[in-house]
Structure prediction request, 272 residues.
Amino acid sequence: MPDRYAVIGNPIEHSKSPQIHRAFAEQTGEQLEYGRILAEPGHFEQAVQEFLANNGKGLNVTVPFKEDAWRLAPEHSARAQTAGAVNTLILLPDGHLRGDNTDGVGLVNDLSRNHGSTLSGAEILLLGAGGATRGVLRPLLDAKPKQLTIANRTAAKASALAAECATLGNISGCGLDQLAGRKFDLIINGTAAGLEGAVPDIPDNILRSGGWTYDMMYGDAPTAFVRWGQSHRADKALDGLGMLIEQAAESFYLWRGVHPDTAAVITLLRAK
Ligand code: ATR
Prediction:
């Protein structure tokens, strides 16, 4: 029986992870199965244990179970520890479960490897102070930006999150209404505003000339924040499809020890 992997969440039918991981497996010649698991709230642990008892070797975890996965795993990577959330569970050879979070490295790899961005020395604005933002903080700070500003509708949440990470780099938090007069090289949207087709309420002139925007969300049509970037003369206005594929690639590497070629899979999914 081949090693089994899956993505677990609720809802889950829309997930592109099976398609991505099957493409990685085909490309690398790894023998594995990759499926999807719909778990009911309150039954996450039971669903994981059942899967592991049936030759499951690892899971990707998505909404709303990333914090549950963090609680379930007895050991974590440093980046999962900062995130307080786990998107990748790995069954170690000794039977222990390890929790990691590949979202941030997915974002950083998409920006730097796929798009040639230099994050080191950049002034970066990260919008939102929820799970999406927390999930990417450590790898973003590891890339050594000159300054990372977290701005949130509720200012106190941004300040608290920045304070938690103060030892990891030059980071500060503020309200969206405190951004007037500032300039950034890169603005990353980690808010949930896009779910309602909206963008966070930010000043018009905060993107430096030649600056980029990045929406952690993606869709078949350009997202509201991608459109914001385009209409504010971003040099590049990127969506989160590349991040999705790069976080998957890092999970695949954690499980199999093999780095897949992400460019081919990005092209495949963009063509759909
Ligand atoms: P997630 O886990 O997806 O990050 P979350 O923890 O609910 O979700 O956080 C959602 C984030 O999007 C928050 O930062 C939220 O701002 P508040 O903390 O002020 O609620 C932000 N958000 C949601 N809708 C928004 C909107 N219309 N404009 C600006 N920020 C918004």
In short: The radius of gyration is 18 Å. The mean pLDDT is 97. The chain has ten helices and twelve strands. Residues 128-132, 152-154, 157, 191-193, 198, 200 surround 2'-monophosphoadenosine-5'-diphosphate (CB under 6 Å).
